[in-house]
Design goal:
Largest sheet: 5 strands, antiparallel
Strand content: 25-35%
Order of helices and strands: EHEHHEEEHEHEHEEEEEEEEEEHEEEHH
Number of helices: 9
Radius of gyration: 23 Å
Helix content: 10-25%
Strand order of the largest sheet: 16-17-20-19-18
Structural class: alpha/beta
Distance between the termini: 54 Å
Shape: globular
Length: about 400
Amino acid sequence: MAPLNKLQEKYDYICIGGGSGGVASSRRAASYAKKLPLSNRRRTSAIMWHAADLADRLRHASKGYHFQMFLHPSSTGHPSSRSVMHTSAVECIYEKNLEKEKVDITVAPPNVIAGDYITVATGGRPTIPSEDQIPGASLGIDSDGFFDLEDQPKRVAVIGAGYIAVELAGVLHTLGSETHVLIRRERVLRTFDPILQDTLTPWMEHTGINIHKNTSVLKVEGQKGGELTVHLNDGTQLKVDTVLWAIGRHANTEGLGLEELGIQLDKRATSSLMSGRRLCLISLQSVIFRVGDYQTGCLGLHPTIGTVGLTEPEARQKYGSAVKIYKSSFRSLYFSQIDESTRSQPCTSSSLLAKEERVVGVHIIGQGSDEVLQGFCGGSRKQDLDDTVAIHPTSAEELVTLR
């Protein structure tokens, strides 16, 4: 659809942002026969987890299930090119769906339009230290730059402990790169539930990823495209081909004029209305949409993670001694034929219950966790889980048979 051209028009609802949140919000609003535009300020992101997952499964098929096959990964080239092609195809599908549902698409800079309700869903972009903060920081790339790599680096330093750092480190390591992860404390995923941190950190080390704990970068030396030297706070150095910064993201809210409307922004330039669990509240007639009441995520890590609701520390802070925790550890049947040294770690799950045994958090790590979590949400009671028919043999049954 051609971009709108300086329209002066009134809409029922305006959504700023063309990512998954903006597209989903716009399509849902359109289904209620609301007139709305979607202002697209960024492209959708690409996910490249499946290439590494496929490599894992091929190894399992060969060593565990005794299929005869040749595993000779290419020494040149990078799967990201196909990922970018896939992303472009997905964007075309999004545009066609929006056009079919009569959602107008505007392109930044936005035109002068008005609406009864407005949602800011502009997403964020990676943060990289300035040269003043860390000399040579610009020699590294961010998560967007990862998808621009033409060749897979033989040696890479991933700096960060969040899910993007962990995901990309897992992909690179599984595909054969010597991978170093530099974190400032003892565990990865520090903002996630402790059961996920305590399970994933040692497992990453077990698989061969080099985790440098209590580590910070002082400077980076070298030339882009050549060998880089990363100087660490303990006086040691790392020689790598690529430095990948994954230390966080900041919001794409510049130039929206939010401050002029009296909306307070925190230090990451995110609206105070968007920080925490409740991201925004949109009212369309009698229909209320709450975006972000529960922090939900399916992380494409190795292994995958599913998480919804409060972490254990958050739950105890909010509900105190009323919190009850159910935990389970089990191994998927898939790994019964896989050698102990190469199989995935046991799946681990926990459900956090609060007053009246309502579920306030569910966290699971292990193969298929991203699929398992789709059926669970905050507000259910433990009795609801107990009353669910457990389908055997599946990993999902563990969450409805917790004792």
